[in-house]
Amino acid sequence: MTASGRFQFRLRWITALICILVLVTNAKPASAWGWGRIGAMDAGSARDPVNPTAPAGRLQEVAPPGGVQQLQAALSDRHPQLKLISPADGTVLQPGQQTLELQVSDWPLAEDPELGLGAHVALQIDDQPPLRFSEAGNGRLHIQFPALTPGSHRFTAYAATPWGEAVKAPGASLQWRFDQLQGLADTQPAPDSPWLAMVSPADLGSGEPLLLDWLIWNAPLQNLREGDGRWRLRISVNGDSFLVDRQDALWIKGSGSGHGLVQMELLNGLGEPMSPVFNNQLRAIPHSSGSRPIWMQSRLSDEQVSRLLGDIVMKEESPTPEQAAQAVLSDEPEPEPATEPQVAQEPVELEPMVERIKEATVPEATSAENPSSEEAYPEKAAPEDVPPIAQSAPEPPPQQETPQAAPSSSLGGSARELLNADGTQR
Predict the structure, then answer these.
(1) Looking at 43-138, which runs of residues are DSSP E strands?
(2) Neighbouring C-beta atoms of residue 393, cutoff 10 Å
(3) Which of 235, 213, 212, 232 is nearest to 222 (CA)?
(4) Is 249 left (phi over 0), alpha (psi -120 to 50) or beta?
(5) Mean pLDDT for each consecutive 10-residue tract of the chain (426 residues)?
(6) Any idea what the Cα angle at residue 212 is, between residues 283 and 66, rounded to 5°?
């Protein structure tokens, strides 16, 4: 290479190094849009994120009920894990596919006939209220798909406590997408976009304090250093609002005992709404009626805690076939006991007795019919007034009355009309 060539080569290298040095020294921090601190492009400066605020106005954050705290302590050593078995994430569902299968581990599933729902698994479809499941076979849940409209749907499943709070530990929740018949664009969040799943208020709550709970998917960690806030959640309860920057459930007092509304909005670090689907949701506060849930009490017994966590299973006893038959018989009226008048009035026994009376020719057989009556012992008649058969019959003494003649004393009606007053047959 000639001297002139070497000079040109060095000159190009020197020029390149100078350009790189200028770019490095004049570079400024890049502005983070969406999650991070949003910079003003014209001024080149960064805006600070909005700070979280405590519940204000009529709202006041309170501690969970005593029963909830007991159950939380009993569940603290659990590490629930959920896994989608079938269909796979992103499946296009056909009309014949009706069953969803989930695997659940290290989480009790229980529902007590007296105390109500215990620890369970909740399933939410899109922004709808959760469906709850408390039974599994061999650690697997088999769930029948509810009616799905054609298009894309987002599913969220999580391990839930007896009061409905979602467990926030890693692996305790999962989310996926199904398309019914065909996918529909722009109706679901992108795989890496942040989106909100509103957990509570739900049907399990009743009265105050009110549980507020949520899940935020694809939310980056924040508050690791000062000023790195990337998201905020604005919660409004009957018009009173506050901001939170953590995924911790809240217990709120002051929401009122009647009907009300809870709104949750996912915001970026500057407090501006984020556009992906499901990031602005509204739900009614459940109406307080009937008895309060057992976990709302200030204190639970050890047996109640065990039953709500499935350690003690209390089943409703179904009657055995013998008990069911006895219950049916007990509803039928009992037959009245037989009485003497009912037996004496049986007409079928009179006919044979009448026939025997008709055949009788000896009046002595009937003379003792009723020893207590005046006809039992009539005065002696003259021999000429008494029939020959009657004269040959000796007069029975009173002490010889026997019970054998007693049946004839019960005769009445047409049977007695066959005898004369002296006991002879007509």
Answers:
(1) 45-46, 60-61, 81-86, 92-93, 99-105, 111-112, 116-117, 120-125, 131-133
(2) 14
(3) 232
(4) beta
(5) 63 72 46 36 55 90 96 96 96 88 96 94 94 94 92 96 96 95 91 92 86 92 73 93 94 80 93 90 83 92 94 63 53 49 47 53 45 44 46 51 46 53 61
(6) 135
Distance between CA atoms of 333 and 251, rounded to whole angstroms? 57
DSSP tag of 173: E
How would you class 78 by CB atoms within 10 Å of its CB: exposed for 0-12, middle for 13-18, buried for 19 or more? middle
Distance separating alpha carbons of residues 424 and 412, to the nearest angstrom: 16
Tokens of 299: 């204190």
Q: Which amino acid appears at position 16 of this protein?
A: A
CA nearest neighbour of 116 among 292, 294, 311, 288: 294
What confidence score (pLDDT) does residue 105 get? Answer: 96
Buried b / exposed e across 160-178, counting CB within 10 Å, b at 16+? bbbbbbbbeeeebbbbbeb
**Helix/strand/coil for 101:** strand
- Domain boundaries defined on the chain: 60-308, 346-381+406-426
60-308 is classed CATH 3.30.750.80: no
The single residue listed with the structure tokens 């499935």 is: 310
Closest CA to 141 of 57, 70, 83: 83
Dihedral sign computed on CA atoms, order 338, 339, 340, 344 = negative
Instruction: Give 40-60 as a DSSP string.
Output: ETTTTEEPPPPPP----TT-E
Count CB atoms within 10 A of the CB of residue 249. Answer: 19
pTM across the whole model = 0.65
Distance CA 64, CA 95 (A): 44
| Alpha-carbon gap, residue 135 to 145, rounded angstroms | 16
- In three-state secondary structure terms, 281 is strand
The H-assigned helical ranges of 127-265 are: none
